[in-house]
Write a structure and sequence with these properties.
Elements lengths: L5 E4 L17 H14 L3 E4 L1 E2 L5 E2 L2 H14 L4 E4 L9 H4 L9 E5 L3 E4 L2 E3 L3 H13 L3 E6 L2 H12 L8 E6 L9 H8 L7 E6 L4 H11 L2 E4 L6 E3 L2 E2 L3 H14 L7 H8 L4
Parallel strand pairs: 1-2, 1-12, 2-5, 6-9, 9-10, 10-11, 11-12
Antiparallel strand pairs: 3-4, 7-8, 13-14
Helix pairs in contact: 1-2, 1-8
């Protein structure tokens, strides 16, 4: 079984300091949280960026500032910028961080009702456009899927040449409007991807650690972090992203699974060296 790749989603676009005071907004806070996760065993930092007041932005200059600062203290970490942005952003606005030529970036494979009147829109043409841009820029997409139909979309667009093999999926489970985070749902998604594909599981809220355990046992990979969950245990706020990563690393050790370094993660994911 391959070593376990741990991704830390350190801030997201929606979670606030009101939810957990340790949620990072500033460049310095993002560096602190990325370093805590890296030191605990994360080889990938999944990155959204904020303005200092906490509002989400896809500004490539802000991304560059944060990415450069993280690489100063974690020189070999894989930084995976999000192209999800925030509800209402244009395609090109969302794609700005891919202009910085990261090794990986997210590619959302469908539209989702986030709750209330918020709709996270990803039309088929949007997904094709993002796929083309990532191929053009030499970026490996992490295919974010919130339901089974999004896997089907990714496979269909792969056959049409918009997404290259081997594919890497991120099962985001437990989001309002998407698939739940029960074992049944995990098995359903897991059995729906190609044999040569890899996957990461991101469980939202109370699903984070139960799904992490399933992925560790199955040979998949795990994402944790403040974007998905701000608690280390029921009712107890996590002190840092590093504390969440540490918990997964302990779980993996108890199950006999070693943790991948960034170099090993690059090999597993087929990233250019």
């Amino acid at each position: 079984m391959e070593k376990l790749i741990i991704t830390a989603a350190i801030c997201g676009a929606e979670v606030l300091k009101e939810h957990n005071p340790a949620v990072p907004y500033t460049v310095e806070e993002c560096v602190r949280e990325a370093k805590s996760a890296y030191d605990a065993g994360a080889s990938i930092i999944h990155l959204h960026v904020r303005n200092d007041d906490g509002t989400p932005t896809q500004d490539k200059n802000r991304f560059k500032e944060v990415m450069d600062a993280i690489h100063k203290v974690c020189p070999d970490v894989i930084i995976q910028p999000s192209t999800g942005g925030a509800v209402g952003m244009t395609n090109d606005e969302r794609l700005q961080p891919t202009e910085l030529s990261p090794e990986m970036a997210t590619l959302d494979c469908g539209t989702l009702n986030f709750g209330g009147d918020e709709v996270f829109t990803n039309t088929e043409n949007t997904i094709k456009y993002f796929g083309e841009k990532m191929i053009e820029r030499g970026i490996k997409p992490e295919l974010e899927v919130f339901d089974k139909s999004m896997i089907d979309m990714a496979l269909r667009l792969h056959r049409k040449g918009y997404i290259k093999s081997p594919m890497h999926f991120d099962f985001v489970m437990g989001v309002n409007g998407g698939i739940s985070g029960e074992m049944r749902d995990f098995v359903f998604l897991r059995e729906s991807i190609p044999a040569d594909a890899t996957y990461t599981v991101a469980g939202i809220g109370r699903y984070e650690f139960p799904l992490a355990a399933l992925a560790i046992i199955d040979g998949g990979h795990v994402r944790v972090g403040f974007e998905d969950n701000v608690y280390i245990s029921k009712g107890v706020l996590a002190r840092s992203n590093g504390e969440l990563v540490e918990k997964v690393a302990r779980m993996a050790k108890e199950m006999g699974r070693e943790i991948a370094t960034p170099a090993e993660a690059r090999r597993i994911l087929g990233l250019a060296q």
